[in-house]
Give the backbone structure.
Amino acid sequence: MIVGEQKPLAEIKKTVAPYKKLLILGCGTCVKTCFAGGEDEVATLTSALRLTLKKDGKEIEIEELTIERQCEDEFIQEAAEAIARNDAVLSLACGAGVQDIARRFDKVPVLPGVNTTFIGVLEKQGLFTEECVGCGDCELATFGGICPIARCSKRLLNGPCGGSKDGKCEIDPDIDCAWQLIIDRLKTLGQLDNLRNYIPPKDWRSSNAGGPRKLVREDHII
Amino acid sequence: MNKNFKPKITLFHCINTFSDGASLPIAAEVDCELQSVKLPCSSMVKDVFLLRSFESGSDATVVFICPEGECRYVEGNIRAKKRVKRVKDLLDEIGLDGRRLSIFNISSGDEAAAVQNIQKAISDLADLGPNPAV
């Protein structure tokens, strides 16, 4: 899923200041799971904004709505009437959701309420970790399902740097050494020989270094 | 503190601490307006409920949880404590001051401790004054 965290209240307050009627629009998928932009977070932010503005002697009308996803048109349409009723939308979706709302409602300012941080997993309740950088050329089969690009601080593709200690990264001891994990996993799978193959320098053109990417599925386009 | 200031306190409590916080003798002992919200477990106290208590005019909000290790649902009180900490930080960001929100471990039926803790919340308001967002 896409992981994000809500922007600081002071930044949001400044962003919404010019508007009298605001729709806070939540997204019920990824950002809900990471407690950044689901229904509960919309309600909490609405209350917090009302309180801080009232304390300053200001008042704005805030409407709350959460749709299933802000990155798909069929769900976005459910917000159309609420968007039309307001001066601006504060979207608590990831960057893709914010832009999809903006694309479909070109006369309404759409403001981001969340900092989109990474593609990751819920490792345990309350702990989200980055697992994928979306490089566009997945090599997880070689590395036993552990990505050295996303999870090694040095993004090494040909073995460990030698700096890890007790399975922890020398850059940040809170992070597991990805190469320790890869070697342990390949041992378990009996696939340690995978590492005998030299991995050439990665071609980053398939990542966002190659410019904005597009996926075309002709079989789904009418 | 203004002598005419009669604080409004909202009390969220687990039904395992008191069956009904409204029956606490605090109102008779201290000049405050006490509104109590009973919950099946203190972990049910969501961030937004705490904030809305302030939107509803509360000057201070108090949460009573069961003592550590005595939660009927194992970790409800720990969750409530973490949530309260987060909302205290948010109240600082809002500009209301996190000290308006407090949390106490209370043994089941310990009215004397309950009254004492609510009195503490009231005395903290001497510095803070009324809720500025009302």
Summary: The domain at 2-118 of chain A is CATH 3.40.50.2300 (Rossmann fold). Helices of chain A lie at 9-16, 30-33, 39-55, 73-76, 80-85, 95-104, 148-151, 178-189.
